[in-house]
Design a protein that fits this description.
Blueprint: E1 11-14, E2 16-20, E3 23-29, E4 40-51, E5 59-64, E6 67-75, E7 78-82, E8 87-90, E9 95-99, E10 104-109, E11 116-126, E12 137-141, E13 146-149, E14 152-161, E15 164-165, E16 174-181, E17 184-189, E18 195-202, E19 205-207, E20 210-212, E21 216-221, E22 226-231, E23 235-242, E24 250-252, E25 255-257, H1 260-271
Antiparallel strand pairs: 1-21, 2-3, 3-4, 4-11, 5-10, 6-9, 6-11, 7-8, 7-10, 9-12, 13-14, 14-15, 14-16, 16-23, 17-22, 18-21, 18-23, 19-20, 19-22, 24-25
The structure holds manganese (II) ion.
Manganese (II) ion (MN) binds next to strand 5.
């Protein structure tokens, strides 16, 4: 029941700056006290920033396990290459969804393919135990479903929202949507069994008594059947949600796993160039795995 939820109060968390490739990003997830929202376990907001000869995304080949990467752009272009042989340019309005399963590697290049403003998000979804050791895969969705709710125009990236359902792969109950919210109040329908967060990408909104600014994440928790979002100017807001992820989760570098031994094995396999992660056809240098903090230095 949602009657006992105080809809006027939400927890607002700032993002922290991090460097990815040659670009500064704002990392909203994971953070202390909030490691996941549903199965969403990582959220980077990149840009808006100019891609020049010396500044851009340019992430060389690196491995992943146990997750989906979800790439969504508001401006610009990024070239994705992976160890499955995929070469896919992504532009605003399109979705790249890569499934790591037991292991995959990819590179993300901007500088050589695009000059101009780059603005977007890269998100990770933790795969459940039943899928996380499975076959890797890649999907590009050139067109995504949209829904109009009050003053907002919502694009559904993953899952279902306001009657619109994305065809993108999902391994557990989840929703991810990007909304343009025009000035005024929009009330979004929610599922009480899902937990949710709103990440503001542009503009400023109020949720109940709280003001949420760009790169701030409003954690809504579970138990709500709707949320009122008030935009003071046209805002861009990402809605992330899903059934609370209750499996134990260990994240180290680009690996999502359950135990330190699994991470150690993945680090070793990448460092030794094992077939597990395949080969990415990219001119960028391969990124070495850092030594896990729990491993003896030698
Ligand atoms: Mn990656």
């Amino acid at each position: 029941m949602s009657g006992d939820v105080d809809t006027t109060h939400v927890a607002v968390h700032p993002s922290r700056e991090s460097v990815v490739g040659r670009m500064t990003v704002h990392r909203a997830l994971p953070r202390r006290g909030l490691r996941t929202v549903g199965p969403w376990c990582f959220a980077d907001h990149m840009g808006p920033e100019l891609v020049t000869e010396t500044q851009g995304l340019d992430i060389g080949p690196h491995p992943h396990t146990g997750l989906h990467t979800v790439t969504w752009l508001l401006e610009g272009a990024v070239l994705h290459r992976d160890s499955l042989g995929t070469e896919q340019l992504i532009r605003p309005g399109q979705l790249n969804l890569m499934t790591a399963g037991h292991g995959v590697a990819h590179a993300e290049e901007a500088t050589d393919t695009y000059r101009g403003t780059l603005h977007g998000v890269q998100l990770w979804v933790a795969q459940p135990d039943s899928q996380r050791d499975g076959t890797p895969g890649f999907e590009h969705h050139a067109v995504l479903p949209r829904a109009e709710v009050d003053r907002s125009e919502v694009t559904v990236l993953v899952g279902e929202f306001a009657g619109a359902t994305s065809l993108a792969r999902r391994d557990s109950p989840i929703v991810g949507a990007d909304a343009i919210v025009r000035p005024g109040t929009t009330t979004w329908p929610l599922r009480p069994d899902f937990e949710y967060a709103l990440l503001v990408l542009d503009g400023e909104i109020s949720v109940g008594r709280n003001v949420v600014r760009p790169n701030e994440l409003a954690a809504l928790g579970t138990g709500r059947d709707e949320v009122p979002v008030t935009a003071h100017e046209t805002a861009r807001v990402l809605l992330l949600g899903g059934a609370p992820f209750t499996e134990p989760l260990i994240m180290w570098w680009n690996f999502v796993a359950r135990t330190h031994d699994e991470i150690d094995a993945a680090v070793r396999a990448w460092q030794e160039g094992e077939a597990r992660f395949g080969r990415v056809d990219s001119a960028l240098p391969r990124i070495p795995a850092p030594q896990p903090i729990w491993a003896p230095r030698g």
